[in-house]
Design goal:
This is 50S ribosomal protein L10 chloroplastic. It comes from Prunus yedoensis var. nudiflora. The protein folds into two domains: 15-55, no CATH class; 59-108. Helix content is 62%, strand content 6%. It is built from three helices and two strands. Strand 1 and strand 2 form a beta hairpin. The radius of gyration is 30 Å and the shape is rod-shaped.
Length: 108
Amino acid sequence: MTGMNAWLFVHSEEIPPAIKPYRDFQKEKKLDSNDFSGAVFEGKFYAPGDFKQLETMPTRAEIYAKLLGTLNSPASSLVGTIQAPARELVMLLKAYVQKLEEESGGGQ
């Protein structure tokens, strides 16, 4: 390796937030945006052309949120389907009570 060299060590699994300060430094110093030799993450080597994949990787919290949203959607639909008959019965009973109140109030 020749020229200026820098090493970026990240001690978490949140890669995009860790890379942002480096990218800000590149912009501030007007450095070439592809001035690195590569990266290693979880035992896999990423060539300079593959580095974008690491930068756009979702955080663990984003992955969990998407997973929970996916898992929650069918459950919400099931609950709505199960509650629908009871909801309809309650609405029917309310309408019947209202009708009886109107009939008894109108006769006095």
